[in-house]
Amino acid sequence: MTKRFEDLEFTDVFMFCKLLQNNPDVTQAIVELLTGKKIGGIVNNERQRPIEITPDGKGVRMDVYLRDDNDVVYNIEMQKANVDDIPRRARYYQSMIDVDLIERGMDYKRLNDSYVIFIMLEDPFGSGEPIYTFNNICDENPDLKLGDGTVKIFVNAQGICGKINNELRSFIEYLRGDDASSILTRTIDERINRLKRNERWRGEFMTLYENYQYERNEGRKEGREEGLAEGRKEGCKEAYISMVKEGAITPAYAADKLEMSEEEFNKYL
Known about the structure:
By secondary structure, the protein is of the alpha/beta class. The chain has helices at 13-22, 24-35, 86-101, 166-175, 183-195, 199-226, 230-245, 251-257, 262-268, and strands at residues 42-51, 60-68, 73-79, 114-120, 131-134, 150-156. The chain has 9 helices and 6 strands; from the N terminus they run ααβββαβββαααααα.
């Protein structure tokens, strides 16, 4: 949250969410690129969708949540920092999608197919693959898929091996900070430049930044007055809570920055 609005990039959560929420054609192109399948169109697209099951239960706030014209659900997350709970977080997100979709008495056969997609700037598994796609398969017969309609995809910006097409290669290189070299990445670049001219969103971002600076300064002041570092820590917690509530960052990202588990952070949240 130290960047200026005009310096935000595709991999910054604020810009990532704004771009995908307001450019369904770009969102559709990204979904098709990462899933390897064509869709007719996007019929519902929500930014920072919260899913709360019970008042005292653990909820989630998803970066981008959408459905295509075949009623398939997609959750796309931008993950800048690598944390060791990504696989289980993906599992939890997918379970929350199911609980959110199913109605009392509904036949399980009517559950929507769903994709949970993490776009990551660091390799989550250390195998060097540019993209990891997981389906539930049988150990005894790998050709047999469970067929439960769920897929988990992890995009690795540091991927250096594996055979991929030029469009995906260009997208992954773009995530690393290389110049846009494909129709999709050039379109993303152009749309981001257009978004940066939106004064309303500039004001929204500046409000988030000012809240962050205020909370951080209050924490530092409290720490000086008490002669304790704890004040600074509490101020940082409040700042990150404010940013999460405003949709600027994800709870997982805030927890990572505060060096605590996501469960601990959600207690503060």
